[in-house]
Amino acid sequence: MTYAYGKSLLPMTVGFDRLFSTVNELDQLIGNTKAPSYPPYNIVKIDEYNYEIQIAISGFSLNDIEIETNQNKLIVSGVSTKPAVEVEYLHHGLANRDFNHVYTLSDISVVRSASIINGILKIQIENVIPEERKPKKIPISCDDKLLLKNDK
Are 65 and 57 in contact (CB under 8 A)? Predict the structure, then answer.
């Protein structure tokens, strides 16, 4: 299932589904800063806890890409290598320039893995909810003898 994001700040946040309306309002207040559009990317919500960032990296080799996490930031950058021999293009439609994407992750998001499949860099992210933050049922005790008697 894909997740569509229309506002400029929203694509750079992963794992904050419930806060998107607040971020949207903040985005409108601060002037709709533009998110990077090169290279093109998708953010996919796989299920309640798992996401995947997909970045089109055609023209980049494995050694040209770097992925780093720093606190709650995921930084994906690419440095294009220039060909050793000058190329004369009859048509030059493929962009191959350096890029830097910074995604803000929630405090419970963990980057699990990254792989390149068919020219797409796929980064798997999981929201890991600590036990103390998970919903739980609270048992109700009753010491009232009258209530217990009427319950039978």
Answer: yes
What is the side-by-side strand order in the sheet with 50-56? 41-45, 50-56, 120-127, 109-117
Q: Tell me the domains of the chain and their CATH numbers.
A: 10-151 (2.60.40.790)
Taking alpha carbons only, the member of 125, 134, 131, 132 closest to residue 15 is: 125
Residue 11 CA to residue 3 CA, distance in Å, equals 10
Of 18, 20, 99, which is closest to residue 8 (Cα–Cα)?
Answer: 20
Q: Read off the pLDDT of residues 57-106 as tens digits, 9 standing for 90 and up.
A: 988 989 999 999 998 899 999 998 887 888 888 998 888 889 999 998 88
Q: Using CA atoms, how far apart are residues 34 and 5, in angstroms rounded to an integer?
A: 13
**What DSSP character marks residue 14?**
E
Whole-model pTM: value is: 0.66
Please tell me the distance from the alpha carbon of residue 75 to that of residue 14, in angstroms, as a whole number. 12
